[in-house]
Structures are given as C-alpha cells and as structure tokens.
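Lab intake sheet, docking and co-folding queue.

SAMPLE TYPE: protein with bound small molecule
LIGAND NAME: pyridoxal-5'-phosphate
LIGAND FORMAT: SMILES
REQUESTED OUTPUT: full 3D complex as structure tokens
PRIORITY: normal
SUBMITTED BY: R.K., bench team

The fields below were copied directly from the construct record.
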Amino acid sequence: MAKSLIRKPEKDFPRHKSHLLPSPEPVLIPDNPFHKIIPVCAPVLDESEKRKVLECIESGWISSLGEKIGEFERKFAEKVGAKYGIAVTSGTTALHLALYTLGIGEGDEVIIPTFTMIATANAVRYCGAKPVLVDSEPRTGNIDVEKIEEKITSQTRAIIPIHTYGHPAEMDKILALAKKYDLWVIEDAAEAHGAEYKGRKIGSIGDVATFSFYANKIITTGEGGMITTNNSEIYEIARNLRDHAFSQERHFWHKLVGFNYRMTNLQAAIGLAQLEKFDELVEKRIENARLYTSLLKDIEGLVLPPETEGIKNVFWMYGIRVKDSFGISRDELRERLARKGIETRTFFIPIHLQPIYWKDYVNEDFPVSEALCKEGLYLPSSSGLKKEEIYFIAETIRGIKKGVGS
Ligand SMILES: *Cc1c(COP(=O)(O)O)cnc(C)c1O
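RESULT FIELD (auto-filled):
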C-alpha cells in the first residue's frame, strides 16, 4: 500500500445551506481619491517598535528567555485588570493551553457560540473534547445566554464566551450559570483588548481569558497571544505547560505532556511598544466607529453595531448587517465597495456549517448565526484609519444605496 502524505480534506458540507456562504473574494481596484486600497485592517507600527526590536537584536536576546517577555506579561495583565499573564505563540495556543491547564479532555463538553472563529472550536477539539454549540443573540452577535442552560449536561466542563468584534458578552449570566453547574469560564478575548463590562475589564472576569496579538488585532506582536488569570494555581500550571512542563527538581525530566508555546523576546518587544499606545489605539477604534455610525445611521436596510449602557465596546471590527430592505445583497454591496478600493470582510461562517464540524450538529438550529453569516460585513476598521477615509466609505455606501433606489 502506498503511503499517503496528506490528510484528505473534508469535501462534504451542508449543501442545503450553501446559499448562506459568501461569494468568492471580489477584486479590489484602487479607484478612489487616495489611489490605494483601504485595507479592512492594518497594524499601527512606528519608531518605537523598531527601537525595541533593535534592542533585542543588539543584545542577542531574541529567543524566549529575554527580559521583555516578563515585562510584557506584567504590563499587559495589569492593563486588562488581571494578576497574571502568560505570553504564548498565538490566540489559538492560548485557548488550547487554557483548556489543557483546566484538565479538559476526552469525553468532556465545552460550550461555545457557533458564531465564532474556527480557533475556538479547534482548541476544544485539540483536547479531545466536544464543542457544544449555542446560537447568538442578534444585537451583538454574542452567545445567547438564554440558550446556554439547555445545552449543559453532566459532561459539560466549561463555557467559552467570545466578546464578538469587541462587544463584551453578558458575563453576569454566564458566571451565574458557571457557578450553578460548577463550570470553568474561559473568555475568548481575542477581539476585545481594552473592553469593559459593568466596570470590570475584559481579561479578568472569567477564570481565564485568552488574547490574540495577530497583526489585525487591536494590539499586535505579529503573531502571539496571552492567557490572563487571577488564579495563582492556573498561572503556575499554564506557565509550566507552556514550556514542555520541565520539572523543578531536575532538567529534562517531565511528568506531564507540555508544549512549546513560548513567545519570543522579539515579539514581546513589539508588544511593549504597542502597549505604550494601547489606550490611544482603543480610543481611535471607538472614535472611528462613532463616526461611521453618525454617517450611516439613517440608511435604510443597514443594521449598525451597538453600544450598550455600562459596557465598553472597543469595536475591533465595525460590523454591519445588510438587510433585504437595503435593496442589494451583502455580497453585491461588497463587490461594489471593492471597485472603489474599499476592502471588507464577511462575518464568520458558523462552526455548524464548517465541512469539519457540520455532521455533529445536523439536528440543531442556529437561525441567528446563519442570518449574521448571510448579512454581515465588516468595514475598514484599523485604528490608523483616517477620517477622510471613513467619510469616503460612508459616501460610497450612500451613493450605492441611492443608485439602488432609482
Ligand atoms: C483571532 C481570533 C482567534 C485566534 O487568534 P490567533 O492569534 O490568530 O491564533 C481566536 N478567537 C477569536 C474570536 C479570534 O478573533
């Protein structure tokens, strides 16, 4: 028998749902006053990142033993109101390490929203556990807290709420359920650096929170992630597992299967420079979102992202929904924006529609997530976006709407 090098990709998907899937990516043409593509998201980097990275190179500390890592962990944890931070290689490995640290494994169930990025479900799968899916509530796209309890079984071990596009999930109700059923709460805060929920910072509310520092996140280290927690035991265990679970008593001696999820000093250097502008980057996102909202709010057929009393939405992405009453579909709007060099991205395709997951959920309904998948679009959302660019994008959308009406 011939050996095979590659895993066979799943070919099947729920065909009766194929109308929900977005059209292929449109071609971007920089036909606008700026003569360039306006990207959906780009990092803000300047001299301070350059200087700090150079320090690493000049000192020779480029690996994971440099002193910038500890400093980045302390300062980032403090920024999000947590006692401890553990820097890792990505938001995905942060989720995996968190779940693994909490002892989640074979036979366990973890409740997640179906409307999320694939990493949330995959991290559960890496542990051998089963992702149990819950639909979203339509206003924020976050996990519908009214639909969690019916999914809890004797196998359930944890809930992972996602603070979707920067708007915190309803943590009070999630924490109450976790208490009632003795479950862990892991906040997937990959999109919510700087967000707040009823006076508490995102990153310090659940047992553990995980962040991503991928280039399009609110602050970046290129690739990277962090676990934050107030629990010293979780901190100690996760730190050890991040680094192959080396034992204290003797080197090269391992009593647990650990990982190499270590962040490098180079990444931490970029992270420290980004932390200096943290408040500014967050504020810019909120300002940009409010400007978009003021310019788009009277256009029929668009549903704009909400702000909620007592909750700080940091608008990682400015996500709008294009309803039938807009006159053309989300994909058609997207195509026309692309012709003006305006890059957009469609919302998540829910986990229950993914070729790798759908078969486990065929008997369940997730109508809200499906509507979000069909109608959702995020507009350029970088912290570095210029006001003129936002005016141009809003005017372009208004022009398209007018053309549809006539
Ligand atoms: C970006 C993201 C992740 C994954 O982060 P990476 O750093 O890309 O691994 C996980 N969850 C959510 C909700 C995200 O948006």
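REVIEWER NOTE: The chain has a mean pLDDT of 96.
SIGN-OFF: pending second check by T.M.
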